């Protein structure tokens, strides 16, 4: 009798697991072959923003994939800036996000905007990972050391050391105009970002 | 009493497996099978509607497309290989349209896995895609197709009696317009 109950509960737990397991549908591009690490479903947001819309965006300087250092302030008075933080290289949703921006160069240019991709990974990892995406037209910055310092400054560093999936739109004056700390498990729809860029003109 | 304890979990597991298979197919559509059941919206654009031989509003299923063969590409605007193959798929469309023997027999559509209507439009504009593309914002179709990696090509043959079957399916590895068309013609028996 006791044994039966145990079997019963095991089967029920299996069934529940089947039901709640969220299928991984991101990072499905054949370009990555089997190299995308499945992270499972994560807590949607795991940090507290330290900036808000209308704030002056905190300046930073980070090394980029091309070897140059990039500072936010170098665009002041010249270009709008979109910061796209993605949690980590070789993970499902992130691997899906930048390749989309990569074919949208026109939209960024039309809106006099530069895009800066940022992760907490080191440069060699970013190099290998972004190579799978084809040639990216925008700088990719490494917020690796001190670990996640820029992410922390903006309040998008999660408790496990990766960053949120977050978008910041900063105008030419250096003011934050749009923030989307997105559910880490989902890709932000392109139209939301494009809408925010078009609002900058007004 | 004993019997109940045995049958209850068995029934539950069976039921739940059934539910989860309806939600998510376990495997990709393959040669010899029929397509998973899903609906696409009838395009509003009259040229696309005419291309697919559809009329009215509402929804349709792929075998209702007026053609002997339908080539379906499951892609995403976020997928680097889909982007790379896009010009070659456009060429496939052009080759079919330029051939009077084929243009009414073979039709081509794309389904944007996880792509919003805006994202599908952005992709269409970037690559000047000349054939109908359908958004699959919530991955509903992608799930019905076993969450295939992208790009995934499915060649469907519509039979005279209203039935259909998949005569070819492949993940990536797009060989270019000419060899792929050759493959489609052979697999479907059009040649």
- Shape field of chain B: globular
| Oligomeric category | heterodimer
Question: What is the name of the CATH class of chain A?
Answer: Alpha Beta
- Categorize the overall geometry of chain A: globular
The largest β sheet of chain A comes out as: 5 strands, mixed
Biggest sheet strand order of chain A reads 5-4-3-6-7
**Span of the ends, CA to CA of chain B:** 64 Å
Would you tell me the structural class of the helices and strands of chain B? alpha/beta
Instruction: Give the SSE order of chain B as H and E letters.
Output: HEHEEHEHEHEEH
The largest interface is: A-B, 35 and 41 residues
Instruction: Note the gap between the termini of chain A.
Output: 73 Å
Number of strands of chain B: 7
CATH architecture of chain A, by name, is 3-Layer(aba) Sandwich
Give the count of structural domains of chain A. 1
Q: What is the β-strand count of chain A?
A: 7
Under CATH, the homologous superfamily of chain B reads Glutaredoxin
Helix coverage percent of chain B: 25-40%
Radius of gyration of chain B: 19 Å
Write down the CATH topology of chain A: Glutaredoxin
Determine the structural class of chain A based on helices, strands and strand pairing: alpha/beta
